[in-house]
């Protein structure tokens, strides 16, 4: 007989509930949040067991470890699970675990893809770089603000010129220098670490054939392609390339009821980092890429009709679709219609 288990995971302890095919509760309890301990508890209640766990920080590690031990684990979207459990009068870990088991039993869910540890490693690299970039921006703005109070204006300076300009302004301001120089030193160290992360990103891209292939698309650089590859991971996950745009939150929301049918702004669901990099890539294609292509011609016409920002969002969605199609077929970007016909 098939049984269904729901796991409500916390850092130290996991609440477990097991139900049968009719939805009757067979067992409920807790176990340490450890794959070995959870496997031991779950195995006591049969081998034909479907285990449901919702998305969360510990989910990738827990799902991979439980699957490695032979359990059939289904990952549920936390937003869907929250909507399904919203009718519960009392919100407790025990009730949530039983609710997850019932969701798995009824089949009212869409399983979430669990990325590999390698994909999470790439995402961690990109996330760490982005965090440091944000810190350098905040720190440089803070330094500029302090100097302005004393009539010292840095002006349009970036990178090394920013550091040199600040040092020049501090030359005859010893009282201010004692405050600003420590922050400037931290700023330099952050910039050095960002450079090391950039080098690591380039090495990752050079080692991956799919990244080199996808960079044949104009406007797509190392950061964009590595973020895209780590988010999609397996192109066969999507039957149609156009589904990738919706997966990354680049398609408009729709509200339809009766005679009302309207489209709104893009959904912005999915991976925000990939979406932002594709948005930047679209801007590069529109403003910096000089070589003409049918893709750029389409985007330029859209700019004339709808404005730059809307065209940039639409181009970002189109880039997501094209990248998937290229990855799936293995053919590089076609710059002309003649190449497409050939």
UniProtKB/TrEMBL annotation:
InterPro entries per the UniProt record, alphabetical: Transp_IS110-like_N (IPR002525), Transpos_IS110 (IPR047650), Transposase_20 (IPR003346)
GO biological process: DNA transposition
Domain Transposase IS110-like N-terminal stretches: 5-148
Keyword DNA-binding among UniProt keywords: no
Residue span(s) of domain Transposase IS116/IS110/IS902 C-terminal: 211-292
A molecular function (GO) term: transposase activity
Alphabetical keyword list: Plasmid
Domain of life: Bacteria
NCBIfam families (UniProt xref): transpos_IS110
Name under which the protein is recorded: Transposase
Taxonomic path: Bacteria, Pseudomonadati, Pseudomonadota, Alphaproteobacteria, Hyphomicrobiales
